[in-house]
Specification:
Blueprint lengths: L9 H4 L3 H21 L17 H39 L6 H8 L13 H27 L4 H19 L1 H9 L5 H4 L3 H20 L9 H18 L5 H17 L5
Helix pairs in contact: 3-4, 3-5, 3-7, 5-6, 5-7, 6-9, 6-10, 6-11, 9-10
Length: about 270
């Protein structure tokens, strides 16, 4: 009677699996003991042949992996939907006025389902704020770095353009961050201060480099200049009506001209 398991070689198909294994193991152990007695410690190791996983089992494992990946993907989509819904509500009505029930309704899920992904509204807020600032920071850095060696005025112009695009066109997270951050209690602001500081320092360096290159006035203080520029850019969410990308780029160009040339008649 065969063992019912298929192995690599034809020889294994014609021998009872247990009987063959015992015979092979006994011969191997005999050779090993002989080598140890003769002082050869590197003698042959017992040969153990590993059976193939039956193709049916491999198929079931592959299907299980696909199912697990699909479940993970669905969970990630649900989580992102909750975050996007929260960002939109935070942007429109603020953090305090937004409830978990409203977020669930906008995401078209049951209110209790939120707790599968987040422990509280504060945890949702934390990720919305982090995503928002990281998005604008990365957008600005990538835009400036892709330009390579260009005049410092152009680098600042690209930063202005990228900030506005991230704010007005591509991210509810960024606009939510800007609109509600000042309304939050200190304990909710504190974790985000290091990243905000890093972004401010990035802008400071852009202006410092321009000043050292003689492209902006030497008597211009960098920190007030940065606060004025970023403050003006952020305020556009209150009055600018987005029609198309060209409108955002035109706003960026006008802002750059105003900063570098002022309102004096040319």
């Amino acid at each position: 009677m065969h063992s019912g398991i298929c192995f690599d070689s034809d020889h294994w198909l014609h021998e009872p699996a247990g009987q063959y294994f015992e015979m092979e193991f006994a011969l191997s152990m005999k050779a090993l003991r002989s080598s140890l007695r003769s002082g050869d410690r590197s003698g042959p190791r017992p040969a153990v042949r590993r059976p193939k996983v039956p193709s049916a089992n491999r198929g079931r494992k592959a299907q299980a992996d696909k199912t697990s990946a699909a479940a993970t993907s669905k969970s990630e989509r649900s989580r992102d939907l909750i975050l996007h819904s929260a960002a939109q509500l935070f942007r429109r009505q603020g953090f305090s006025a937004t409830t978990l029930r409203q977020i669930a309704a906008r995401a078209k899920i049951k209110a209790g389902s939120i707790y599968y992904h987040f422990d509280s509204k504060e945890q949702i807020l934390d990720e919305v704020l982090d995503r928002g600032l990281r998005h604008v920071f990365e957008t600005v850095k990538n835009s400036v770095e892709r330009a390579g060696k260009v005049p410092h005025r152009r680098r600042i112009g690209l930063a202005i353009e990228a900030h506005l695009v991230a704010l007005l066109e591509t991210s509810d997270f960024t606009s939510a961050n800007i609109r509600i951050y000042g309304q939050l209690p200190e304990q909710l602001k504190r974790p985000h201060r290091p990243l905000r500081r890093a972004y401010a320092e990035y802008w400071d360096q852009l202006f410092i480099d321009a000043r050292q290159a003689g492209e902006i006035r030497a008597d211009m203080e960098v920190v007030p200049l940065r606060m004025f520029v970023i403050g003006a850019l952020n305020w556009t969410i209150e009055w600018f009506r987005l029609e198309n990308r060209d409108a955002v780029l035109e706003l960026a160009r006008r802002t750059e001209t105003l900063i570098f040339e002022g309102v004096n008649k040319p």
